[in-house]
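## Example record

The block below lists the input lines for one assembly entry, exactly as stored, with component labels intact.
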Amino acid sequence: MSEPTIKPKPLSRINLNDFDPDFHGNDDKQDVVAATDRLQEKMQALQNRLYAESKQSLLIVLQAMDTGGKDGAIRKVFEGVNPAGVYVKPFKAPTPDELAHDFLWRIHPHVPGKGYIGVFNRSHYEDVLVVRVNNLVPKEVWKRRYDHINNFERTLVDANVRILKFYLHISKAEQKKRLQERLDTPEKNWKFSPGDLPVREQWDAYMDAYAELLERCNTDYARWHIVPANCKWYRDWVITKAIVDTLEDMNPQYPPPAPGLDAIVIPD
Ligand code: AMP
Ligand code: MG
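Predicted structure tokens for the full assembly:
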């Protein structure tokens, strides 16, 4: 299958117009879905080893515009994974207490500990996205955050946390379609937030903000993956493949058995 995950070189310039949100490879849907299913079986086995080994962890960061598919990807990609070893942390607008601290204060406690996979639904990157676009802090403040983020992520990597960052790239037209679906489908009405409309109007400003963070925070130790996300089954395959590749590279091992186990007889 063609290589779908675009990994620009660290600190290279990015123009999101160069990335086609509709891209979905050359394979049929049913083949890609079957491939995702096979990858999920691998993921389950690898996650079991990661948990048993308890020496390293995996942090997955998901960012996207509204309706970009973060929730759907989480639901699909982690299907069948042992929930004891995986958790999802969504980041919403900060509370007054969170705002009274530095922007990473609320993030750090949710980084997965050894043996765990942690998924951030939004993240510290909101502090150079919504915060930048809406001038929630002065430019001098958010400008410094790219370096802060890189240093923070370096700290985590030094503590055996692998970091995988996905930007789910949808088109503005696809967002319109998905927002309309939320209005038209009773089971999806709850997902519609009128606040998404003013954000949609700021689309271009968000694309600029994404381009800059994808450029400045795409380090060799914490790469961004730009995922074509108009096509949901392709999106899920891309993310699943990247996670499985990463877990294989982490190569978690079951701990060796305690000495003398083979001599133990369980009494009746
Ligand atoms: P949702 O993910 O749709 O539940 O929405 C969460 C909302 O929280 C989005 O509108 C985000 O832009 C907002 N949000 C998340 N992090 C921050 C932040 N650091 N500052 C301001 N708003 C944020
Ligand atoms: Mg929302």
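The chain has ten helices and five strands. The chain has one domain: 16-251.
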